Amino acid sequence: MRGCRGLNLIGTDLVEVCPSYDPGGNTALLGANLLYEMLCVLPGVVHR
């Protein structure tokens, strides 16, 4: 995702995380990490 930094991105999308099919929470954790990475590459968003 960070390889997209500098591109003219307008928005991103995380389609679905369904807790009922993810009893261990792995999909939810991956979804949260991907969403963070998506926000980091959007213009004007500062990551720490």
The number of helical runs is 1
Q: How many distinct beta strands?
A: 0
Distance between the termini: 16 Å
Count of all domains: 1
Secondary structural class: mainly alpha
Radius of gyration: 13 Å
Helix and strand element order: H
Query: What average pLDDT do the residues reach?
Result: 79
Overall geometry: elongated
Q: Estimate the strand proportion.
A: under 5%
Low-confidence stretches: none
Largest sheet: none
Helix content: 25-40%
Would you mind describing this structure in some detail?
- The chain is built from one helix and no strands.
- It has 48 residues and is an all-alpha fold.
- The chain has one domain.
- The two termini are 16 Å apart.
- The mean pLDDT is 79.
Defining key terms:
mainly alpha; single chain; elongated; 48 residues; 1 helix
What is the element layout, followed by pairings?
Blueprint: H1 26-41
Short description:
This protein is an all-alpha fold and 48 residues long. The protein is built from one helix and no strands.
